[in-house]
Amino acid sequence: MKRVDLLKAVTMVEADPPTSERQSPVTKDANTLPGPRRTSVKQIEANRRNALRSTGPTTPEGKQASRLNALKHGLRAKDVIIPGQEEPAEFEAILRELFEDWEPEGHTETHLVEQIGLAEWRLLRVHRAELGEIRKQMASPTESESETKAEIDQAFEFFPKHVPQVLGKSTAGIARLRGAVEDAREELESEGIVSEDTCLNLEYVFGKEPDSPGNMLRDWFQEEWPEGDEEEEGDSDDKPTPTADNSEPDKNAGARRKAAARRYLKETLKDLDRQERKLHKQERTDLEISRQRLSIPEGDELERLQRYETSIKRNMYRDIDQLERLQRRRRGELSPPTVNVNVSNDD
């Protein structure tokens, strides 16, 4: 309220003469209702001082903040957002900023500003969908990981001779080799020897080279393996078999073989760890390259997102052009010739 109007209102309160008596609307008798309350001179002076101070925002920042306090629009956030995934306050903030930028007047301009805000909100949705597709691609096994697993499975099933070479090329293969060595180590600690079956399994995954774990353990423990044809009960005795030179057998030979096998298996595991660290570094580099390639959605999803984004932008640019023309016409300015803007994904 302006200062003059406030002063006028206060003056009218002062000038209003008190009524001496009032009639009851029921009994029509005088003095049955109390008269109006008389305003004191002190209260009138206080009202005048308050009226002088009630001038509203005085700073440019305050006036700018309160300029759109009564902003009303017909586009409701609950009709636009996806419940549980989008925030109504974010959409309302976009609309408020657009209304501050364009300052629409009338229904048509207001509607166009709302459509521009809706288009901007949908573009943000496209960006989130694009990010979702990228995350989906990265969460699934990469092509190299899938190929490595398939190559190992095929080698075990169809190409047994190639198993050692295939296992030595990846961390997944090194894990298979470590498992075979751990089995041999556990058997050595529990049984005191490494059986023929365990040596055969080691030869299968490591190969049959002379220095392979299977051959090394076979040389140490082969003489302790049971014979293929068991002797009849009672034909054998518990006496130690004499050596070729008729000397007594070494009673500590078994302990020495076990200690040597334990050291050998421990060193073999260390070698596998070194190979795994080297392969892991290379695989991590390859994985980073693959993820960089997956930073853009592939196939039909990319084309679908691009078509949707293009349609939104086309409509938004059209609404902006119409809004600019309406506001120029309202201000009495000349509108430039119509320019058709075609947004397309084609090269």
The percentage helix is 55-70%
Biggest beta sheet summary? none
pLDDT averaged over residues: 78
Class per helix and strand makeup: mainly alpha
Give the uncertain stretches in residue-range form: 13-36, 64-74, 229-244
What's the helix count? 12
Alpha carbon gap, first and last residue: 61 Å
Instruction: Kindly estimate the percentage of residues that lie in beta strands according to DSSP.
Output: under 5%
Order of helices and strands: HHHHHHHHHHHH
Radius of gyration: 46 Å
Q: Can you count the beta strands? A: 0
Identify the overall geometry: elongated
In words, what does this structure look like?
By secondary structure, the chain is an all-alpha fold. Among the domains are: 71-141 and 307-347, no CATH class; 143-223 and 253-293, no CATH class. It contains twelve helices and no strands. It has helices at residues 3-15, 41-53, 60-66, 88-102, 106-139, 143-158, 163-167, 171-191, 196-206, 213-221, 253-293, 299-330. Helix 1 packs antiparallel against helix 2 (41-53), helix 8 runs antiparallel to helix 11 (253-293) and helix 9 runs antiparallel to helix 10. The longest helix has 41 residues, at 253-293.
